[in-house]
């Protein structure tokens, strides 16, 4: 059976299973097992089992539930509410103050949470009613929350970086450092856009004097004390990785310990909160691991059949040059992002695309940042756009999914601009990792 026919049959079977409603992880695993039997008989199942056990033997996988658990604990500690209140008080006198506060809160939460969806739901509950009650336009309010929530993809401790590092064989610590400057740059672009738009059209963001604006400095600093411990946790996690004091797994353990202390300090430590955090962590981790196993089985069988070599030969045969091919790969990521979750895109494409790009001279850490920025675009782009659906779940009934998707276009444009800047100037992402202690 030719590899071209195998590719067509595997792709058709995979898409067919997805169309009938089978979860992505099980669809990938089922196709992998089926074609292992068809192509190699019963001994072919040894490949599937060996790849799964190889993954289970990777100690870095332990960092996934640790960082997810850290995020769940901090969420239960009510950190987002404190951050938003403090930032809103300080930003109340600038144009679009509450929307600016949303972006700043999202940036700080991204440095603590790193889990897609958790940020948008939490900030949507806290910030959306405040903005709508003060006359902010729906577009500005909804768009800022969706765009800000996507920063968790790029700013460490992003789970996306962990999974990319495991898949591509890249240092997770270097990936974390590489995401910091691009993430802060994108957040700054969001803030600049909001302030300019609110200045040109003040009706979009009325600057009525709020209660927070009248707070004395002592009260603002007093509330900010609740952020000291979680802030120290973030610095300890990233600092230990930057200076080479800890592995990603050890840093995750430090983060969990600090998050637990934050819950105790805020009086939120209870059996119910811990139980719910454990349940959320278990669900998220199980989903990620099943996706990892299913996709690994599929890619393993396809690689053994010669599929990855065929795809890589096709890619290198295009008369586009390295930059043109890089653009094509990113267009594939963006298109897939309209229909498939980021983890599926990563596990199905990175083993094929990343080696080709690295052989062409591109830095794998920089490629990881580009992948995360592409996933940010898919995170808010229709029709899949999970950010819109997360926000719809906590928005008032009169706000439709169409309202949310209409609000994201300016931020989508800013993401494309930021992606172009990082492509044109790779040192924006690579400078900080290059200064790390080895």
Task: Give the helix/strand layout.
Layout: H1 3-19, H2 24-40, H3 45-56, H4 63-76, H5 79-91, H6 97-110, H7 118-133, H8 138-149, H9 159-168, H10 172-200, H11 217-224, H12 228-242, H13 248-265, H14 271-304, H15 307-317, H16 321-337, H17 342-359, H18 364-380, H19 386-392, H20 401-407, H21 409-424, H22 427-434
Helix pairs in contact: 1-2, 2-14, 3-14, 4-13, 4-14, 5-6, 5-11, 6-7, 6-8, 6-10, 7-8, 8-20, 9-17, 9-18, 10-18, 10-21, 10-22, 12-13, 14-17, 15-17, 16-17, 16-18, 17-18, 18-21
Largest sheet: none
User: What is the number of independent domains?
Assistant: 2
What's the N-to-C terminus distance? 47 Å
The proportion of residues forming helix, as a percent range, comes to over 70%
Shape category: globular
Uncertain regions spanning at least 5 consecutive residues: none
> Taking all residues together, what is the mean pLDDT?
83
Gyration radius, rounded:
22 Å
DSSP strand count: 0
Helix count, DSSP H or I runs of 4 or more residues: 22
Order of helices and strands: HHHHHHHHHHHHHHHHHHHHHH
Strand content: under 5%
**What structural class is derived from the secondary structure elements?**
mainly alpha
